[in-house]
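Field notebook, page 409. I keep forgetting to write these up properly, so this time I am using the form the group agreed on. The chain and the ligand, cytidine-5'-triphosphate, are recorded exactly as supplied. Prediction of the bound pose follows.
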Amino acid sequence: MQVYRVGGAVRDRLLERPISEIDWVVVGATAEQMRELGYRPVGADFPVFLHPHTGEEYALARTERKSGRGYGGFTFYASPDVSLEDDLIRRDLTINAMAEDDHGTVIDPHGGQRDLAARLLRHVSPAFAEDPLRVLRVARFAARYAPLGFTVAPETLALMRQLSESGELDALTPERSWKEISRALLEPRPDVFIQVLRDCGALKVLLPEIDALFGVPQPAAHHPEIDTGVHVLSVLRQCAEHHQPLTVRWACLLHDVGKGLTAEADWPRHIAHEQRGLRLIRAINERSKAPKDCQELALLVGEYHTHGHRALELKASTLLELLQHFDVYRRPQRFEEFIAACEMDARGRLGLEQRDYPQADYLRGAMQAARAVAVQPLLEQGFKGSQLGEALKLERLKALKAYKKTLEM
Ligand code: CTP
């Protein structure tokens, strides 16, 4: 039996990038032999094993044939007569379809090294279509390697378009899609992920609410870039430049979906888009099965981002309502993420990327002022239950008024 490094480990070594995990392919062995050698099978009928000591994945060389629609419909054929070449040809991209033996010799039957040099994400063969998730994977790799100059090969984009238009993407489970979406949003160019999905028609299927934002104008005075879709891409780019966490990136992606609902006659203004977008954000959240913290922040940012931008003009009582609503007493971190999302939104505008966002420190200061109000003195004065709640609110309002006053002086 022969063992080779494959996939991402070979690709990233050749790109001189850090290798996150090593995948291995085993040629000329049976599942039985693997078990006898102490490898632990990953699943009952999946020819993948974990190394007894390193825990790395060892897959038997296999061919995959599609037997039905969607992800459930795979059958695997793994046997000692499947060659390394048979295995490599069913992989997604040429740069992912290289293997490396013990001596460091690269086995590259599909021009992976040529495409690494040409900075091209190119599919290996028509077998690409066996797994529609690959449409998202290619967009994710584009988001990761765009800073190195990688683009999607035109013929691959055409195949991705065919897959998107054929309805195959509908069969993806939300879990598999979310894994790709969340990883892609955390890459250095999350905007490229969305752009590639749009270019191949997949955005219309996966996130039609975001797709609908392209071509929707906003007032040039606030948004020199005008197009709402372009604005969202810029906001995502800011998120990456400022190393924002996934929650903030997800919230930023969804924050303006309400603008897609504005009647054309009302363009370029989008009155009450924050409220109107909530229904869409809720629907996207549910459909994508995003984790709770992402869902929650997306709804809060959708509803209150304009409050963030107008922070300095808000009355003390409105500021208090905002802080209460965010429950900054127990969840200060979530409010920090809200502030970050507002700042990314403001910076994601053409020519305004470097402009100061004084609202951020102002909101932070307000949160501190409200949080600094102590409960103990009120308890000592005998307040209890709902009366205690009211008294606390009153004290916090006083603190916010004082905070505003000191800043005005
Ligand atoms: N692969 C594939 N099609 C998929 C998933 C995986 O062809 N839908 C193949 C590719 O050859 C890939 C390898 O399996 O390189 C390992 O997959 P995975 O670990 O998901 O990706 P990596 O390429 O290692 O990339 P990453 O750095 O994102 O983990």
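OBSERVATIONS:
- DSSP finds 19 helices and eleven strands in the chain.
- Residues 385-408 form the longest helix (24 residues).
FOLLOW-UP: compare against the apo run.
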